[in-house]
Amino acid sequence: MKKKMSRALALMLAMLTLATLITSCSNTPDSAPDGTTEAGVPADNTTASAETERFDDFGRPWVEDDLPEKVNYNRDFTVHSRGNVDKYEWNAESENGDLLNDAIFARNSRVEERLGINLVVIAEGSWSDYASVSLPKIRASIKAGNGTYDLLAGYESVTSLATDGYLLDLSTLDAINFDKPWWSASFNEEMNIRGANYFAVGSLSTSMLYSMDCIFVNTDILHESAGQSYNIYKKVNDREWTFEEMKVRAAEAWVDKNGDLTVNAGDTIGAAFPDNSNSVIGFFYCTGNKLTSRIEEDPSFEGLNIERVSNTIDNLIDLLYKSDGIYPANKTVVNFEDGDTLFFMRWLYWGQTKYAPNMDHYGIVPMPLQDKDQENYVTPVQAGMHMYCIPFDVISSEQNAVITEAFAAESYRSLMPKYFEVVLKTKYAKDAETSQMLDIMYDTVDFDFAYIFRTSINYWNGIQNIVTSQNNTVSSSYSALSKAANINLKKVISALLPK
Fold first, then answer.
1. Least packed by Cβ within 10 Å: which of 51, 240, 340, 477?
2. What is the DSSP letter of 164?
3. H helices of 287-380, where?
């Protein structure tokens, strides 16, 4: 496999791609202008390079893969997926007029035709029983060498398959090229252990998109409390969307309807949260904090800025439990659809599902900056996203790599544009400014090794418990937390080293 490019180069290429995307989308006319074809390509092809003559469904210059143009493997290719996610990533038996379904069907058909395969999707279980039912079944099959699964769309606890030696190191597979834009560079960088990498996310993972944390905004309440001239999207673009700004607007919007001086269900609430767990995850990681950093090659806790983490925990306790107009995260969850809450933290999935009928009245903004000193917005991704991996008992690792890369490339060219541009933007984002918010979120997705492997390392729970206790003891308990977690972290790293 081609080696991973530097982070700086990856960011530069991503910026160039984004600039091209924005130019293409904003300049696409209803009909072709003089001197161009209907596809927007200069009519005089002698002045246009071959690389820019073809565009994907997002209007970006076509990115070639390094795979055979046509081959006939004459075989089934079996993907295992969680049962409640397969319809967003894999399962589409035929075209039915639904934009996402039809995009999945078209992508599957193209890859099947190109490589001479028959896609088989095994979708079973859900997030609640994946670790207890689905994963043991998968593990037993791999251990027996059955070759049942060609690709796993794994969830959270699937990381144990890597530490227990049941997965192929994707970096050893020539056909998988992590330098291509259909793989997440930030995820690959975070998960890389001395060149070995067992998981990948990117264009195959529409679940990564809908698992992005964000803030839903009731724009009716916002305009009533802050005035029609207040533009929250401008606040985001001007880097003024911070914890403090969120608290100020929440307090301003709060109407204490029963006069008890306490934020209750039935009030007009300034801000609320989905629970006392995911809320902590989202607001901790949106500050740019990570529990692990790279010391030489490997993830380590030694670089943790405990003073900054302690300051963040103070801010989280204040925001989640003690701020005026904000409904505490440890109370029974309020229903955002009731229309009496200004800000509600959720992941993007809710906008395409439960909140979809009311999106005329809702806006979407990224998770806020902790303060104006924070360098950039950071978008955490909830654990519900799929991480892709290949079992070691597959019949042909070479073929599986080619097929996986082909699905990822085709997802980047056609499926992701439909999901991100059509389903996410056109279907429920009501204006261009909201679309820009989604662009910011997608461009600032970030990951933490300690969180991805949290079931094995067992460090994150200690941090979360400190926040939910509303008693910031992290400075005094850091040593004890780190001592046990360091032992676990070293075991994980040792298990993942290149074989």
1. 51
2. T
3. 306-321, 349-352
Query: What pTM value is reported for the model?
Result: 0.84
Domain of 172?
65-209+385-443
Residues 202 and 227 reside in one and the same domain: no
CA pair distance 473, 327, nearest whole angstrom: 24
| Same-domain status, 231 and 359 | yes
Q: Which residues, at least 6 apart from 441, have a Cβ–Cβ distance to it below 8 Å?
A: 212, 214, 348, 366, 377, 379
Q: Which residues contact 430 (CB under 8 A, 6 or more apart)?
A: 359, 360, 363
- Close Cβ partners of 413 (under 8 Å, ≥ 6 residues apart): 56, 57, 58, 62, 63
Domain count, the chain: 3
Confirm whether 494 is domain-assigned: no
Between CA 3 and CA 9 the distance in angstroms is 13
- Tens of pLDDT, residue by residue over 48-99, are 344 447 888 777 789 999 999 999 999 999 999 998 889 889 999 999 998 8
226, 230, 232, 355, 434 from 219: Cα distances, Å: 10, 10, 9, 14, 12
The answer on 202 and 115 residing in a single domain is yes
CATH of the domain at 170: 3.40.190.10
Has residue 223 got a pLDDT over 60? yes
The verdict on 319 and 363 lying in the same domain is yes
Give the model confidence (pLDDT) of 388-402 as tens digits. Answer: 999 999 999 999 999
Residue pair 293/349 in contact by the 8 Å Cβ criterion: no
Say which amino acid occupies 316: L
Contacts of 284 (CB under 8 A, 6+ apart): 312, 313, 316, 380, 463, 464, 467
Cα separation, 386 vs 55, whole angstroms: 28
Domain assignment present for residue 151? The answer is yes
Sheet containing 341-347: give its strands across.
269-272, 341-347, 213-218, 362-365
By DSSP bridging, strand 117-124 and strand 75-82 are parallel
Please indicate, yes or no, if residue 498 is contained in any of the structural domains.
Answer: no
Q: What is the DSSP letter of 120?
A: E
Cα 356 to Cα 137: distance, rounded to the nearest angstrom: 36
Which pair of tokens denotes residue 279? 């809320």
